Amino acid sequence: MESAVRSARAPVMLLAGLLLSLIVPLTPAAAAEDHLPGIDVSHWQGQIDWAAVKADGVRFAVVKATEGRTFVDNRYAANHSAAEAVQLPVGAYHYAQPDKTAGDAVAEADHFVDTAQLKGRNLLPVLDLEEHNGLGPRKLRQWVRAWLERVEQRLRVKALIYTSPSFWRDYMGDSGWFANNGYRLWIAHWNATEPSVPAANWGGRGWTLWQHSAKGSVAGISGDVDLDRYKGTRPKALKIKNNR
Fold it and tell me: Over its length of 244 residues, how does the chain's per-residue pLDDT go in tens digits?
């Protein structure tokens, strides 16, 4: 999510070296018939023409809301409300900045829930997991579990986990616990025919969302944007109200 822009400033954790050299257009041919095309955005995309985005075939969007304990994306409120205004299914994600501070995971979760203000018509919340900040696999797993459980306590739904195959294997110890406890996977794997799915194909369940490009082109957005696919044809299956 953040890595497409941050790669210009520092090495990117998510599949560094696999950045595409060509712009990938969002066309009907870009997704299989049983997949729905979507995007994820943040303030890095600037002002977005959401009507044009929808007209270009985008079927859902996930918008950055928060990062760490205090950061709020300054385009979140505008992006979220404008996407809703054109009746595009929209959700929110939190960019995790885990650390060893007592209660950090719960504080980050509360910051996200308070800011995102997700409702029943919105898509499931998302934990964007790209940073370990020195935590080893056991401590990081504990942090992720605490964040997810706090969000579930407050919203009564299980959040999606966004990560890359290498991050999950290297920094989460390729844990299968989350897959086996009902948390679905949003996998980031660019420039691939099919994504590599960690944790034994996520406990045999596979991926739910796949970010297949960080260099996409969509009407209504200037510059690159992340392109995603939802494995299914009914985006309402990811809506909060369907999980209550």
Answer: 765 434 433 333 333 332 233 334 444 344 456 899 999 999 999 999 999 999 999 999 999 999 999 999 999 999 999 999 999 999 999 999 999 999 999 999 999 999 999 999 999 999 999 999 999 999 999 999 999 999 999 999 999 999 999 999 999 999 999 999 999 999 999 999 999 999 999 999 999 999 999 999 999 999 999 999 999 988 778 999 877 6
Q: Where are the domains of the chain?
A: 3-243
**Nearest 5°: CA angle at 153, between 151 and 157?**
65
Write the burial class of residue 98 (CB in 10 Å: 0-12 exposed, 13-18 middle, 19+ buried). buried
Catalytic residues: 40, 128, 130
At the second CATH level, the architecture of 3-243 is Alpha-Beta Barrel (3.20)
Query: Could you write out the DSSP letters of every residue in 126-166?
Result: EEE----TT--HHHHHHHHHHHHHHHHHHHSSPPEEEE-HH
70/66 Cα distance (integer angstroms): 7
Q: What is the rounded distance in angstroms from the CA atom of residue 50 to the CA atom of residue 233?
A: 21
* Angle formed at CA 25 by CA 14 and CA 56, multiple of 5 degrees: 115
Torsion of CA 176, 193, 26, 19, to 10 degrees: 80
Quick one: tokens of 109?
A: 């979760």
Q: Which two tokens stand for residue 151?
A: 């969000």
